From TrEMBL:
Gene3D superfamilies: Rhodopsin 7-helix transmembrane proteins. The chain crosses the membrane at residues 17-40, 52-77, 128-146, 171-193, 205-226. Keywords: Cell membrane, G-protein coupled receptor, Membrane, Receptor, Transducer, Transmembrane, Transmembrane helix. It comes from the Eukaryota. One of its GO terms (cellular component) is plasma membrane. This is G-protein coupled receptors family 1 profile domain-containing protein. Its main location: membrane. The keyword Transmembrane helix applies. Signal peptide: none annotated.
């Protein structure tokens, strides 16, 4: 028993460290996504891409709200409340996956099929797609909630036979349908970014999309893949791994506003440099003319 206690001490310290690291990321992410939501709603006119970014901020906010709530709760809560938190988290994460796929796919079509895109795109396509994807996300999250969380009630064991098929459906939809479309579209957008002749505003949009998708693949998508592996390998169900996945998820949901900020800041600096360069050129051209007049 003494050895078990001694072995558990390093794990408890690691859990505490991860907890204190995850919490600031989640809180800052809540404020930054809230700022993006306010900025897009009150300060910027909606466009086809800002609608997607707004929905992405809402999805990230819901995911981070679940993380912060789980980390701040220090009193015992009912299992039903925990299941509701899982439902809200799945709702936000699924919606984020679908909306991010829509951004990358629409940008891909716009670049490689511009004539077809201009003629065929409906006027409120972004709004329609966002509503459909939020509905799909909610349907999938609610179905998973009611088919898998019933296993706590022994009188409803018969209903649990639908749990594994529902989980498999989620894996197929998220990782085998939407994720390949997202990766394929983003890779082609990245190849399009390489020529230096592209206009700055278009390249800035492409950089934002590629960086956001890369952030998603490195943290959020990898978390889901590890969770799937954990279902078939029970030995890796350990608390520190569970909290590490929460940490990666929090980084992904908190990172998008800073991507927008960095890309926008670099754009501002670049145009300031161009403006100064243009002013210097004009000044150099005016100097000989002034000397001629004086002479």
């Amino acid at each position: 028993k003494i050895n078990e206690t001694q072995d558990s001490l390093p794990e408890e310290k690691a859990l505490t460290i991860l907890l204190y690291i995850t919490l600031p990321f989640s809180v800052f992410g809540l404020f930054s996504n809230g700022a993006v939501f306010w900025f897009l709603c009150c300060r910027i006119k909606n466009t086809k891409y800002t609608v997607y970014v707004l929905n992405l901020a809402i999805a990230d906010f819901s995911v981070l709200f679940c993380h912060v709530t789980n980390l701040f709760i220090t009193v015992p809560i009912s299992l039903y409340t925990l299941h509701l938190m899982d439902l809200a988290h799945a709702f936000g994460f699924n919606a984020k996956t679908y909306v991010l796929t829509a951004i990358a796919a629409e940008r891909y079509v716009m670049i490689f099929f511009p004539a077809w895109y201009q003629l065929r795109r409906p006027k409120h396509f972004s709004e329609i797609v966002s509503v459909i994807f939020w509905g799909l996300s909610g349907l999938l999250a609610i179905t998973l909630h009611y088919t898998c969380n019933l296993e706590i009630d022994t009188s409803l064991q018969e209903a649990n036979k639908h749990c594994e098929p529902t989980k498999m459906a989620r894996v197929i939809i998220n990782l085998l349908i939407f994720l390949p479309i997202m990766v394929f579209s983003t890779c082609l957008i990245f190849t399009r970014m390489l020529p230096a002749s592209q206009e700055a505003p278009l390249r800035r949009l492409d950089i934002t999309i590629v960086a956001t998708v890369l952030l998603f693949l490195l943290f959020a998508a990898s978390v889901r893949i590890i969770e799937i592996i954990a279902r078939w390998v029970p030995k890796i169900h350990i608390p520190i791994l569970f909290l590490s996945l929460h940490f990666l998820d929090a980084i992904d949901s908190s990172g998008n506003p800073y991507v927008y900020l960095i890309v926008g800041y670099s754009k501002t600096n670049k145009w300031n440099c161009l403006y100064k360069l243009n002013a210097d050129i004009k000044e150099k051209k005016l100097q000989p003319m002034t000397l001629l007049k004086v002479g």
